[in-house]
User: Fold Peptidoglycan-recognition protein SC2-like from Terrapene triunguis.
Amino acid sequence: RRAACPSCAVHGLCCPRIISRRQWGARPPRSRVPLRTPVPYVIIHHTAGNRCTSQASCIQQVRGIQNYHMDTLRWPDIGYNFLIGEDGNVYEGRGWRTVGAHAKNWNYKSLGFSFLGNFSSRVPNTAALNAAKSLIQCAVSKGFLRRTYTLKGHRNVFATSCPGNALYRVISKWPRFKAKP
Assistant:
């Protein structure tokens, strides 16, 4: 069982379990650009890689993504603000206060949340979907995301199939989703 977070009593809402950069063994970023919050957008992605259903396998996936982003793409850090595993945990990427590298021309005005796995033909499990919904509400309650935020899929802001057709169909029914700018 997950311990109740302090915001439960105050806001009647629990943030999902967030595995910190230290906990998953993140490399230090080469640089950081502060994100001016609250931002007006959440952009949903998928990593298009392997699924993970345990904390150990999700940590392995997140480390691999950070290595790819830093070593191959030469980015200063992992691109996403947070990553969501099918273990029901959220993994801190760049976090709440740092501009991401997840959606060209949208990074300075959004938080990028990426589901770990490929969701072109299958939907993430309930634990991952619930963690994502909770993360969005957590962002609002902590003041990092505007209460009047707009939710988008990566394909709504860039020519890509991300976050996969199956996941896109799900998020397009979530509150505050809007495909067009």
